[in-house]
Amino acid sequence: MTLSLGDGLNQHVLYDAPPHPRATLVMLPGGSGDIGVQRDGDLRHDDNFVVRTRADWVARGYAVLIPDTIDHATLRGVRSSPEYGRLVEGLAAYARAHAPAPVFLVGTSQGTIAAMNGAAHARLGLIAGLVLTESVSVPGRRSTETVFDADPSGVRIPVLVVANRDDACNVAPPEMAPRIAAAMTRSPSVLVLSISGGMQRSDRACGSLSPHGYYGIEQKVVGEIAGWLQTHGG
Predict the structure, then answer these.
(1) DSSP string spanning 162-231?
(2) Structural domains for the chain
């Protein structure tokens, strides 16, 4: 679908849902954010964890809303901006209007910055919870922004922080998970979920088909996150 953002800008999104969703997950992918949504729903780039597991979530009763970038522009360095926070809030508002069910933000890797930003600045009551997987917490060469730039103290909803002990990505060290959790001082509850495993197929440790992207352990991770969602209204 195409959502109008005003000023002549259009946001392409992939939306998939069962007949009666138990919740809607706004999935915020990592990397540049460009997933290449086509008119027929096909994607040019679907390796990212939150993208390639979309059918698994729908099978579990969840609707998924995955935004593309605008005009294939990279999101590196802009996900913590006020403008992008408003865009994420707009996606959540659309999801709530589209299906009468709770809305959760789920970000992975660079997408955790966008998820944190949206959760920190959305109006109260719009978003039911926040899930951060393999959060970018250390500045990198191509982008220096991290989840700490996205106002974690502004988050006032329940949070799940997932960290893979076998993640070798230099900008998402698993040992930073407790520090990320501690930064969300106004959240009513923050759970750090430590997991392990995954296979390395990508050339880079930060690639999607690696322990950083839960390659080979997708069902285990999806199941753990789904269990947390169910305890928070999803």
Answers:
(1) EEETT---TTS-GGGHHHHHHH-TT-S-EEEEEE------SSSTTSSSSGGGTTT-HHHHHHHHHHHHHH
(2) 2-231 (3.40.50.1820)
C-alpha dihedral sign at 59, 206, 167, 203: positive
Contact between residue 22 and residue 57 where contact means Cβ atoms under 8 Å apart: no
pLDDT greater than 80 at residue 11: no
What per-residue confidence (pLDDT) applies to 37?
Answer: 64
Kind of pairing, strands 129-133 and 159-164?
parallel
Give the ranges where the chain is alpha helix by DSSP (H): 49-52, 54-59, 82-98, 111-121, 177-183, 218-231
The pLDDT tens digits of the residues spanning 31-79 come to 866 666 666 656 665 678 998 999 999 999 999 999 987 767 778 888 9
Give the C-alpha separation, 25 to 158, whole Å. Answer: 15
Q: Which helix (H) or strand (E) holds 160?
A: strand 159-164
